[in-house]
Design a protein that fits this description.
Blueprint: H1 2-11, H2 14-31, H3 37-58
């Protein structure tokens, strides 16, 4: 059970929250047709690549 809470605390770090908010915002803009899906895929790919790139750098 301690592992669960430790993993949950690690998930709620600022970088994770910002990444998830960016993904949801750009996905919402794509659904509302404010920006094209191609742009959304580019932006989300960059956010995810940055997030996972910094995660592997820590380990």
């Amino acid at each position: 059970m301690n592992d669960f809470f430790h993993n949950l605390a690690a998930l709620l770090k600022v970088k994770t929250i910002i990444s998830l908010v960016c993904i949801f915002v750009f996905a919402d803009l794509a659904v509302k047709q404010v920006i094209t899906p191609d742009n959304v895929m580019t932006i989300i790919s960059m956010v995810i690549a940055f997030y996972f790139g910094t995660q592997t750098g820590k380990e």
